[in-house]
Amino acid sequence: MRSATLKWIVLLSTIVVALIIVVQLYWLNQLYSHDQKQFDTNTLKAVRVLFDDMQLSNNPEIDLKKRVNHPDPNTFYVRVDKIPQKESLLHFVGNEFLDFGVLADCWVALHDGNTVLFSKYIPGAASQKLVFEGTEPVLTPKGYAYIHLYFPHREKFIIGELTSWIIGAVVLVVILICFAASLFFLYKQKTLNEIQKDFVNNFTHEFKTPLAVMKIASDVMINPAIAQQPERLLKYSLIIKEQTEHLQHQVE
Q1: What is the per-residue pLDDT across 173-187, written as a single tens digit (0 to 9) for each?
Q2: Cα separation, 19 vs 128, whole angstroms
Q3: Pick from 140, 104, 107: which is nearest to 124 by CA?
């Protein structure tokens, strides 16, 4: 296989490896986005069941989405018509989150519209080893009673759920990079081998040609009849001398 052909193979393989890596990164990003949306969906499902179980709404016909304010990925403000008991609220929140797979740690607080009635940190089932960093979130009056749900380690939880996928993608990327590096090394080695081979062929040719001429001249000179032809003897002697100088030049 010539280096030109191998060069194209290495180039195409590198492009394929790059495309696979890009697809892997895109796929991980899509998976992360999907898990974020799934987290929000599961949280809303848990809140919906919480409303039904604790009868927090005076008008069940109102769409739950109109009661939920989601200003940032980690925060949910849920408007309620009735003020629930602290222990009951914490109990139902913990159970509903567990049932719907919302396993991240969470700050649960209740605001009656004027003051904060209570604020409680609940370790998630999947984040028992996480330690909350910073102070508890500051709650502001909104003119209505609401439940505040704040997930301080939401991103860590989602990334933790994707750990096996991330490890698999990283291993695949490392394998692909090693494969690309191996192809590049093979191409480089093949090129060096061809250069060496061409050099040896040219080198051999440069020695074979004068040696062949010298052999022919010497065969003529050992002929006894050449002694009677001084012109031819001188001619072939000069040929041997020229080829000898040529060989000496090539050696140097």
Answers
A1: 888 788 777 777 877
A2: 39
A3: 104
